[in-house]
Amino acid sequence: MPAAFIRTTICLLLALPFAIPQAIQAAPAGNSVKLGLNYPSSGRYKEQGLAQARGALLAIEELNASNGILGRPVELLTANTAAKPDKAVENVKALAAQNVSMLFGGSSSAVAIAAGKEAAKHDLLYFGTLTYANETTGAEGHKHMFRETYNAHMAAKALASYLNDSLQGKKLFYLTADYSWGWSTEASLRTFTKTTDTSAHPGALVTYPRPRDGDMRSALEAARDSGADVLMLVQFGDDMALALHAAQQMGLKDKMTIIVPNLTLGMAKSAGSGIMEGVIGAVPWCWQVPYRYDYPQGKAFVEAFVSKYGAYPSSSAASAYSIVYQFKDAAERAGSLNTGKLIKALEGHRYSSLKDEQEWRAFDHQSVQSVYVVRSRPRNEILQSNLHEDFFEILAQLPGTEAAQSLSEWQAERRAAGKQLALE
User: Fold this and answer.
1) Contact 307/287 with Cβ under 8 angstroms?
2) Alpha helix (H) residue ranges in 122-173
3) What pLDDT sits at residue 18?
4) How far is residue 55's CA from residue 314's CA, in Å, rounded to a whole number?
5) Residue 127, helix vs strand vs coil
6) Domains plus CATH for the chain?
7) What residues of the chain score a pLDDT lower than 50?
8) Is the peptide bond before 209 cis (omega within 30 degrees of 0)?
9) Is the sign of the CA dihedral 417, 420, 421, 423 positive or negative?
10) Looking at CB atoms within 10 Å, which of 110, 178, 241, 251 has the fewest?
11) By C-alpha distance, which of 95, 93, 84, 87 is closest to 37?
12) 8 A C-beta contact, residue 80 and residue 21
């Protein structure tokens, strides 16, 4: 088989921090509703992948303890993308052959975009968990792709709304991953922070995937030599941790404000509490959100996750968990697992789950939602916190209606890419 598949049930244990799911016989053959998780269990984004698996499994455990989906038990089939688009495509083919009712997952936008296009060939929904490039629901969007998390445009707009006053008169340097997410994130940030002049606010592209330490250090040296006040570190996963460690060793953290546009708890843990201290970024969700704003369902999710895994959930886990429930709800509204009926049930649907209200917007299938600006707490505060995982202080919240692209902006992106002005 082109990918290794794991059939899991509610009895699957992921108790250890880096446990790999074991093969366990699931619900009765031919009776279960099968969901396909296409995620990285190896490679530089494996932490984000493990979080997705844990979030999905918790949701499925809860569903199977009640009435499943449409009265049928739920089964999870997983495949390792290793954060590689070609592997993700082969996984989709094999998962489709195993009769999954939908697919979800992601780690990089290149993976999600490629996998989503393949899912459409099999008339299957694909829900993006970690895919921040604007293109996912923009230039490369299609009827079978739904993005549960936010996008680069939304994160950049939230960061700019919080930072622009403090950025007046400051010089920025962009250190950007050389692929779709990096490009669209940098472009959005430059637009909203009014730093589109690349001579005044220079940058450097870093090889993706698998940048070498030397690549990162060369880019950081350029940032240091530029005299910039602010480092826009457009890196993700272990690549961000690599860059921050190098920046610390080079003394840049004492000289520059460092902004990481898209943060997750897993990334913060990988970098470490001392390295992360003072770093500013955006998140679609973090476990502090339901406690800060009093969202009961969010609190219940956090507490169930901590009880099961002995760790706090990241936004990756929350996204996968939410997707399972959103698929269940759509299936029950449609009374069917038919993909066309599911699309109609999702489009325009508003829901509240782990935070405030979200909407599956009909014209682009983007989940419009609030965005949070956060800063990593001082090391001593993190080490004194429960499980040593209270990394993020919430600085600001931007409502989804203010953060998301407008219809005219979305159409302009589609038009520039030569795409139809409606999803196909």
Assistant:
1) no
2) 152-167
3) 34
4) 9
5) strand
6) 5-150+294-368 (3.40.50.2300), 153-288+371-403 (3.40.50.2300)
7) 1-29
8) yes
9) negative
10) 251
11) 95
12) no
